[in-house]
Amino acid sequence: MEFKIDHQSSLPLHKQVEALLRELIEAPEYQNGQYLPKEVDLSAHLKISRNTLRQAINTLVTEGLLIRKKGVGTQVEKKKIFSAAGNWLSFSEEMRVLGIEIQNFELQIYRHEVSAEVAAFFGIKPATKVMRLERLRGKKDLPFVYFISEFNPAIAISASENFNRPLYEILEMDYAVVAYTSKEEISAASADAFIASKLEIKQGEPILIRKRYVYDINNNPVEYNVGCYRADSFTYTIESKRNL
Protein backbone atom coordinates (compact mmCIF):
# COMPACT_ATOMS: atom_id res chain seq x y z
CA MET A 1 0.00 0.00 0.00
CA GLU A 2 1.03 3.63 -0.50
CA PHE A 3 1.74 4.72 3.05
CA LYS A 4 1.61 8.50 2.93
CA ILE A 5 -0.79 11.37 3.65
CA ASP A 6 -1.74 14.56 1.84
CA HIS A 7 -0.61 17.57 3.86
CA GLN A 8 -2.58 19.86 1.54
CA SER A 9 -5.90 18.05 2.08
CA SER A 10 -8.75 19.63 4.03
CA LEU A 11 -9.20 16.29 5.84
CA PRO A 12 -7.55 16.51 9.27
CA LEU A 13 -4.19 14.78 9.49
CA HIS A 14 -5.24 12.47 12.31
CA LYS A 15 -8.20 11.26 10.22
CA GLN A 16 -5.90 10.52 7.28
CA VAL A 17 -3.55 8.61 9.58
CA GLU A 18 -6.48 6.70 11.08
CA ALA A 19 -7.55 5.61 7.57
CA LEU A 20 -4.00 4.51 6.75
CA LEU A 21 -3.72 2.50 9.94
CA ARG A 22 -7.03 0.78 9.24
CA GLU A 23 -5.62 -0.38 5.90
CA LEU A 24 -2.31 -1.37 7.46
CA ILE A 25 -3.80 -3.64 10.13
CA GLU A 26 -5.79 -5.51 7.46
CA ALA A 27 -2.55 -6.49 5.69
CA PRO A 28 -1.70 -10.24 5.96
CA GLU A 29 1.50 -9.57 7.90
CA TYR A 30 -0.52 -7.95 10.71
CA GLN A 31 -3.24 -10.59 11.05
CA ASN A 32 -1.73 -12.48 13.98
CA GLY A 33 -1.13 -9.76 16.52
CA GLN A 34 1.99 -8.15 15.10
CA TYR A 35 3.26 -4.82 16.42
CA LEU A 36 3.01 -1.59 14.46
CA PRO A 37 6.24 0.20 13.55
CA LYS A 38 7.54 2.43 16.34
CA GLU A 39 5.73 5.74 16.79
CA VAL A 40 8.90 7.73 16.22
CA ASP A 41 9.45 5.95 12.89
CA LEU A 42 5.83 6.27 11.76
CA SER A 43 5.59 9.96 12.61
CA ALA A 44 8.89 10.67 10.86
CA HIS A 45 7.81 8.73 7.75
CA LEU A 46 4.48 10.59 7.58
CA LYS A 47 6.03 13.94 8.53
CA ILE A 48 3.56 14.49 11.37
CA SER A 49 3.84 15.01 15.11
CA ARG A 50 3.66 12.07 17.48
CA ASN A 51 0.60 13.67 19.11
CA THR A 52 -1.23 13.52 15.77
CA LEU A 53 -0.22 9.89 15.35
CA ARG A 54 -1.32 9.05 18.88
CA GLN A 55 -4.71 10.67 18.29
CA ALA A 56 -5.30 8.27 15.39
CA ILE A 57 -3.97 5.29 17.33
CA ASN A 58 -6.14 6.08 20.35
CA THR A 59 -9.25 5.96 18.18
CA LEU A 60 -8.39 2.44 17.03
CA VAL A 61 -7.49 1.38 20.57
CA THR A 62 -10.95 2.53 21.70
CA GLU A 63 -12.52 0.45 18.92
CA GLY A 64 -10.58 -2.62 20.05
CA LEU A 65 -8.47 -2.82 16.90
CA LEU A 66 -5.16 -1.98 18.56
CA ILE A 67 -3.67 -2.66 21.99
CA ARG A 68 -1.18 -0.34 23.67
CA LYS A 69 1.49 -2.15 25.70
CA LYS A 70 3.56 0.10 27.91
CA GLY A 71 7.24 -0.13 27.13
CA VAL A 72 6.62 -2.53 24.25
CA GLY A 73 4.56 -0.79 21.57
CA THR A 74 1.20 -0.90 19.84
CA GLN A 75 -0.08 -4.33 18.89
CA VAL A 76 -2.73 -5.21 16.34
CA GLU A 77 -5.58 -7.06 18.05
CA LYS A 78 -5.76 -10.61 16.77
CA LYS A 79 -8.78 -11.39 14.63
CA LYS A 80 -11.22 -13.48 16.62
CA ILE A 81 -13.51 -16.23 15.42
CA PHE A 82 -17.16 -15.48 16.20
CA SER A 83 -19.82 -18.09 16.77
CA ALA A 84 -23.44 -17.43 17.66
CA ALA A 85 -25.89 -19.32 19.84
CA GLY A 86 -28.85 -20.62 17.86
CA ASN A 87 -26.75 -20.83 14.73
CA TRP A 88 -26.32 -24.60 14.36
CA LEU A 89 -23.42 -25.14 11.99
CA SER A 90 -20.47 -27.47 12.00
CA PHE A 91 -17.09 -25.89 12.69
CA SER A 92 -16.12 -26.18 9.00
CA GLU A 93 -19.38 -24.52 7.98
CA GLU A 94 -18.90 -21.73 10.54
CA MET A 95 -15.46 -20.99 9.15
CA ARG A 96 -16.66 -21.13 5.54
CA VAL A 97 -19.39 -18.56 6.32
CA LEU A 98 -16.71 -16.31 7.82
CA GLY A 99 -14.49 -16.74 4.77
CA ILE A 100 -11.74 -18.43 6.79
CA GLU A 101 -9.80 -21.26 5.17
CA ILE A 102 -9.24 -23.97 7.77
CA GLN A 103 -6.61 -26.66 7.78
CA ASN A 104 -5.78 -29.68 9.94
CA PHE A 105 -2.35 -29.43 11.52
CA GLU A 106 -2.71 -32.82 13.19
CA LEU A 107 -5.26 -35.62 12.81
CA GLN A 108 -5.51 -39.00 14.45
CA ILE A 109 -8.33 -41.50 14.91
CA TYR A 110 -8.28 -44.59 17.08
CA ARG A 111 -10.44 -46.77 19.32
CA HIS A 112 -10.69 -45.49 22.86
CA GLU A 113 -12.38 -46.50 26.12
CA VAL A 114 -15.04 -43.92 26.96
CA SER A 115 -15.33 -42.12 30.26
CA ALA A 116 -18.39 -42.49 32.48
CA GLU A 117 -19.73 -39.14 31.22
CA VAL A 118 -19.47 -40.14 27.55
CA ALA A 119 -20.87 -43.60 28.27
CA ALA A 120 -23.91 -42.04 29.93
CA PHE A 121 -24.44 -39.76 26.92
CA PHE A 122 -24.36 -42.66 24.46
CA GLY A 123 -26.25 -45.01 26.79
CA ILE A 124 -23.46 -47.61 26.80
CA LYS A 125 -21.33 -49.26 29.46
CA PRO A 126 -18.32 -47.36 30.81
CA ALA A 127 -14.99 -48.40 29.28
CA THR A 128 -16.73 -49.43 26.03
CA LYS A 129 -14.40 -48.70 23.13
CA VAL A 130 -15.57 -46.15 20.54
CA MET A 131 -13.92 -44.26 17.70
CA ARG A 132 -12.13 -41.13 18.90
CA LEU A 133 -11.05 -38.41 16.47
CA GLU A 134 -8.53 -35.77 17.53
CA ARG A 135 -7.72 -32.78 15.33
CA LEU A 136 -5.60 -29.67 15.75
CA ARG A 137 -7.21 -27.07 13.48
CA GLY A 138 -6.78 -23.44 12.57
CA LYS A 139 -5.86 -20.90 9.94
CA LYS A 140 -2.90 -21.58 7.67
CA ASP A 141 -0.41 -20.00 10.07
CA LEU A 142 -2.15 -20.34 13.43
CA PRO A 143 -3.62 -23.43 15.12
CA PHE A 144 -6.31 -22.15 17.47
CA VAL A 145 -8.49 -25.12 18.43
CA TYR A 146 -7.94 -28.73 19.47
CA PHE A 147 -10.98 -30.95 18.91
CA ILE A 148 -11.73 -34.33 20.46
CA SER A 149 -14.73 -36.17 19.01
CA GLU A 150 -16.13 -39.50 20.17
CA PHE A 151 -18.83 -41.28 18.17
CA ASN A 152 -21.76 -43.48 19.07
CA PRO A 153 -20.54 -47.06 18.41
CA ALA A 154 -23.86 -47.76 16.68
CA ILE A 155 -22.61 -45.64 13.75
CA ALA A 156 -19.49 -47.80 13.18
CA ILE A 157 -17.56 -44.94 11.61
CA SER A 158 -14.41 -46.11 9.82
CA ALA A 159 -10.88 -44.95 10.61
CA SER A 160 -10.16 -44.98 6.87
CA GLU A 161 -12.47 -42.01 6.18
CA ASN A 162 -11.01 -38.82 4.74
CA PHE A 163 -11.46 -36.57 7.75
CA ASN A 164 -10.29 -33.55 5.82
CA ARG A 165 -13.90 -33.54 4.58
CA PRO A 166 -16.49 -31.79 6.79
CA LEU A 167 -17.38 -34.24 9.55
CA TYR A 168 -21.16 -33.94 9.30
CA GLU A 169 -20.97 -34.35 5.54
CA ILE A 170 -19.19 -37.67 6.14
CA LEU A 171 -21.85 -38.79 8.60
CA GLU A 172 -24.70 -37.82 6.30
CA MET A 173 -23.30 -38.97 2.96
CA ASP A 174 -21.50 -42.14 4.08
CA TYR A 175 -23.56 -43.31 7.06
CA ALA A 176 -27.02 -41.75 6.50
CA VAL A 177 -26.75 -40.02 9.88
CA VAL A 178 -27.97 -36.41 9.95
CA ALA A 179 -26.55 -34.28 12.75
CA TYR A 180 -29.67 -32.34 13.68
CA THR A 181 -29.44 -30.92 17.20
CA SER A 182 -26.50 -29.57 19.16
CA LYS A 183 -26.52 -28.84 22.88
CA GLU A 184 -23.48 -26.86 23.99
CA GLU A 185 -21.67 -25.93 27.17
CA ILE A 186 -19.10 -23.10 27.23
CA SER A 187 -16.60 -22.71 30.05
CA ALA A 188 -13.24 -21.13 30.81
CA ALA A 189 -10.20 -23.11 31.88
CA SER A 190 -6.43 -22.99 32.13
CA ALA A 191 -4.42 -24.80 29.48
CA ASP A 192 -2.64 -27.91 30.70
CA ALA A 193 0.78 -28.82 29.31
CA PHE A 194 -0.66 -30.92 26.46
CA ILE A 195 -3.17 -28.35 25.17
CA ALA A 196 -0.69 -25.49 25.66
CA SER A 197 1.83 -27.26 23.44
CA LYS A 198 -0.79 -27.84 20.75
CA LEU A 199 -2.19 -24.29 20.75
CA GLU A 200 1.28 -22.72 21.02
CA ILE A 201 0.54 -20.91 24.26
CA LYS A 202 1.99 -21.11 27.77
CA GLN A 203 0.77 -23.66 30.29
CA GLY A 204 -1.80 -22.03 32.56
CA GLU A 205 -2.94 -19.46 30.00
CA PRO A 206 -6.74 -19.15 29.64
CA ILE A 207 -8.58 -21.22 27.05
CA LEU A 208 -12.24 -21.61 26.14
CA ILE A 209 -13.80 -25.07 26.39
CA ARG A 210 -16.74 -25.67 24.05
CA LYS A 211 -18.46 -28.98 24.75
CA ARG A 212 -20.98 -30.13 22.17
CA TYR A 213 -23.55 -32.95 22.42
CA VAL A 214 -24.85 -33.81 18.96
CA TYR A 215 -28.07 -35.71 18.20
CA ASP A 216 -29.70 -36.99 15.02
CA ILE A 217 -33.21 -36.14 13.85
CA ASN A 218 -34.65 -38.89 16.09
CA ASN A 219 -32.79 -37.49 19.12
CA ASN A 220 -30.28 -40.34 19.17
CA PRO A 221 -26.80 -39.32 20.40
CA VAL A 222 -24.30 -39.06 17.55
CA GLU A 223 -21.17 -37.29 18.73
CA TYR A 224 -19.60 -36.06 21.95
CA ASN A 225 -17.23 -33.23 21.07
CA VAL A 226 -14.87 -31.06 23.11
CA GLY A 227 -13.11 -28.09 21.54
CA CYS A 228 -10.26 -26.30 23.34
CA TYR A 229 -9.87 -22.80 21.86
CA ARG A 230 -7.18 -20.20 22.29
CA ALA A 231 -8.89 -17.47 24.32
CA ASP A 232 -7.53 -14.75 22.03
CA SER A 233 -9.03 -16.33 18.92
CA PHE A 234 -12.66 -17.09 19.71
CA THR A 235 -15.75 -15.11 20.76
CA TYR A 236 -19.16 -16.67 21.44
CA THR A 237 -22.12 -14.35 20.93
CA ILE A 238 -25.64 -14.73 22.30
CA GLU A 239 -28.65 -12.75 21.08
CA SER A 240 -31.72 -12.74 23.31
CA LYS A 241 -35.14 -11.14 22.97
CA ARG A 242 -37.60 -10.28 25.72
CA ASN A 243 -41.09 -11.69 25.63
CA LEU A 244 -43.31 -8.58 25.60
From TrEMBL:
Record keyword Transcription present: yes
Positions in coiled-coil regions: none
Domain of life: Bacteria
Pfam families recorded: GntR (PF00392), UTRA (PF07702)
Gene Ontology molecular-function annotations: DNA binding; DNA-binding transcription factor activity
Entries under InterPro entries matching the protein: Bact_HTH_transcr_reg, Chorismate_lyase_/UTRA_dom_sf, Tscrpt_reg_HTH_GntR, UTRA, WH-like_DNA-bd_sf, WH_DNA-bd_sf
Gene3D superfamilies for the chain: Chorismate lyase-like (3.40.1410.10), Winged helix-like DNA-binding domain superfamily/Winged helix DNA-binding domain (1.10.10.10)
GO process terms (BP): negative regulation of DNA-templated transcription
Keyword annotations from UniProtKB, A to Z: DNA-binding, Transcription, Transcription regulation
Record-annotated HTH gntR-type domain positions: 11-79
Protein name: GntR family transcriptional regulator
Taxonomic lineage: Bacteria, Pseudomonadati, Bacteroidota, Sphingobacteriia, Sphingobacteriales
